[in-house]
Specification:
Six copies of one chain form a homohexamer. The first copy, chain A, is mostly beta strands and 68 residues long. Chain A has one domain: OB fold (Dihydrolipoamide Acetyltransferase, E2P). In chain A, 9% of the residues lie in helices and 56% in strands. A four-stranded antiparallel β-sheet of chain A has the order 4-3-2-5. The longest helix of chain A is centred in the middle third of the chain and has 6 residues. Chain A is globular. Chains in contact: A-B, A-C, A-D, A-F, B-C, B-E, B-F, C-D, C-E, D-E, D-F, E-F. At the A-B interface, strand 2, strand 3, strand 4, strand 5 and strand 6 of A face strand 2, strand 3, strand 4, strand 5 and strand 6 of B. Strand 5 of chain A pairs antiparallel with strand 6 of chain B.
């Protein structure tokens, strides 16, 4: 599968915390850690666990720019 | 200003392309380039240009996880 | 690639309109047409054109519910 | 009320799961099931329950396109 | 129609700018002006024009919090 | 920090409810209350509590327009 989302940041999962319905997954992309809030269901479906190789995928329209 | 968004990926702007109303700004965060689709107005307001230090800011609920 | 986004609606592309930076792609998913606003770049990268089989992918946190 | 969101997929609610703050609601739109992550509060406010007619509403800028 | 989105800020449209595919609509909600980036198509479909009463509708998961 | 997000609605926090992973924060912006769904982590990190001055920050592409 190839997706239109412009951002695909590859790394390794360093944290998976499931809540009641929403899970937080953290990926170390090398120099930075990206946090994703996804469904518990997706964590189970993709069998996500610490140490796995994975990518953070983000649609360009969801990215903001900040300057100091 | 401190913001609730969990992801703040610092880097350098490598591309700014303005469209009719929507601009695309690319930031090299070291090892990866992140694309943001923002308003032309924001580009002007923040005076974004190639070479500037900037950060890609992303809310955790807008991040997906992909595996091979 | 397998993605955490919970919604994957398969269909056929019925319209591709490129703007200055943002394109609108319509997919007939059988009984309904879904409109996506993506980058022109993604249209080129995925070589999207009318008649192609494709899927509309949507993160669960981007879906609202409406009732009459 | 008429809304600017381009996607309105009508169907029937097949699942409502409330978490601590976030609920997951599934709508069978005929041939596909769409999952929405909304607030528990919205579930209560709209009195959503299995069997109800409802629509999944999605802004075009939140839809991605995937191809095989 | 009643929608799950928690935020409905009523006001008056003060600006409508159409781009190639994406329009920017501004609503004065009394004390603040809210900017929406929507499709040109939605502007036409809802016949949005300066002076109209309208509401800015925002899903709670798309709102961030900032402090000084 | 200056951010590209076009909407910054200042007010006072009137409610903070933490769930298992997702918190709901409400800000009275004067005449309207805005609800944000953010991570518990962000609530802790920004030390958000009732009575604090804060702003709701929203990207223009996440704002929809509704008319009666």
């Amino acid at each position: 599968m190839k997706i239109s989302a412009r951002n695909n940041l590859r790394g390794r999962i360093v944290d998976v915390v499931k809540g009641a319905t929403t899970a937080h997954v953290r990926i170390d992309i090398g120099g930075a850690v990206v946090t994703a809030a996804i469904t518990n269901e997706a964590v189970d479906d993709l069998k996500l666990k610490v140490g796995d190789t994975a990518a953070a995928v983000i649609k360009a329209s969801d990215v903001m720019i900040a300057v100091d």
